[in-house]
Amino acid sequence: LASEPTTAPLDAGNVADAGSGAVTATVEASSAPVAQAGWWRTYAAGTDASARDSAVDVAVDARGRAIVLASLAQNTFGVLAYNPDGTLAWSSTYRDPTDDADVATKLALGADGNVYAAGSWQRSDTPLGGFLVVSLDSTGALRWSARSDGGGSLSGLTVNCAGHVVVTGNGSDGTHTLARTIAYDAGGNVLWQASELGPLGLGADGRYVALDANANAYVAGESTDGNQNQITLFAYDALGNRLWTTRSNYDPVHIPQTTAQALALDAVGAPHVAIAEAYRTSQDAEPTVELAVRKYDVSGAVVWAATVDDESRNIATAMAIDPQGRVTVTGFAGSPNPDSYLTAQFDSAGQLRWTERYPWDAPGQHEARAVALDKAGNAYVTGTAYGADGVAAFGSIAYDPNGVVLFREVDGDSDGRIGAALALDRSGALYVVGSVLSSPRGVVGVLRSIQPR
After folding, report:
1. In the sheet where 302-308 sits, what is the strand order?
2. Rg (CA), the chain
3. Would you state the torsion angle of the CA atoms of residues 400, 402, 403, 406, taken in this order, to the nearest 10 degrees?
4. Could you tell me the sign of the dihedral formed by the alpha carbons of 97, 98, 99, 104, in that order?
5. Which of 9, 107, 128, 141 is the most exposed place for a label (fewest CB within 10 A)?
């Protein structure tokens, strides 16, 4: 992997072969800042007029730089580091030349400033693909890369203060889908791995992973009874020994499908899972889907469960927990298509504190996709909102700890913008990333927004 530092946005560039497992890309097109101390940047890799580049995740490092993970042309990892003033500090890309595609999924930052990008490798001779993890230092230079053998795709990533990385996703034993989890040490060597068929032995899938202070790993996903999926939570110790597995047990006639939508640990390490919880009153009835949160203790017992059923279809997409144990979950509502953001907060006992469904005063498939909390307990959500002109834009809302709206913001122009992720820096600036649909080309979009407090 190669990186190319720069002190100013670049106007043009190419994707060029840089040796085994590596390519480089340096293209940056920018517009004038959208507000004082705010800015908007786009990034495109190469010169293919039909390529689709999109940002999939973002985090802010200790230097205040926005680290953006991008899927470039749908087949290459891209990592971009933006300084607070909007200049591109560095950009790095990774693709193994033996792969048909390396698809970026998740980003994490280590306490030492190292960057971890994870996703899946894909090859036509190995249809199921496999896991791919790439570690960069704080300048964008490659530290190590690790890939699993064939079978499955990666969904979740986390890293602890020791630089240990745990990823999860799905695999296969040739008959069933497996919930597959792999842990790496700080040098990219495999510490342990587990492949689970689930409590019923009929297949399972890992979607999200989190590590507690003792390096115990929690994996949230689903397992099947052969017809429907139910939420399943796996717990492993620091050596990869399975501590326990818990699975919801609902009447399959009334609960056709539940899916894990997010996982987070509270201050004492108790896992919480956000859920799209579907049920029907009879086998032939249309299902109702609730936005749900379930809290577990560290032994896997359910402490409480809470739901929001504002509409007949309510889907959670992201969740965050503050130091007081208050759980903020966001997503969307509407049936059959989403028509509103839906955000709710529960207290540490699972009681609903506040909720808001917001349709952005215009028709469209509005979908909140990410949530972040600041030190004051304010909640920020972002995703895709549609304006009166029917064009998609980044839509962000901030709430104080009591659910009072601090601001709503729609950022867009004639090109459609699809919001994917957000992060906050120490100053309270909001970074929103996603894709810009400037037909026929798709490019990465990065917004830094400053709002009055």
Report:
1. 257-265, 271-279, 288-296, 302-308
2. 21
3. -30
4. negative
5. 141
Whether a cis peptide bond, with omega within 30° of 0, leads into 287 is no
Classify residue 191 by burial, with Cβ atoms within 10 Å: 0-12, 13-18, 19+. Answer: middle
In whole angstroms, what is the distance from residue 100 CA to residue 124 CA?
Answer: 7
Do the Cβ atoms of 417 and 393 come closer than 8 Å? yes
Among 393, 380, 357, CA closest to 429: 380
Q: What is the pLDDT of residues 187-242, one digit of tens each?
A: 999 999 999 999 999 999 999 999 999 999 999 999 998 888 999 999 999 999 99
Which amino acid would we find at residue 236? Answer: Y
pTM check: above 0.85 = yes
From residue 404, how far is each of 11, 41, 66, 207, 294 by CA, in Å?
A: 42, 30, 28, 32, 25
CA 28 to chain centre: 24
> Hey, what are 90's tokens?
């560095």
> Would you say 25 and 47 are in contact if contact means Cβ atoms under 8 Å apart?
no
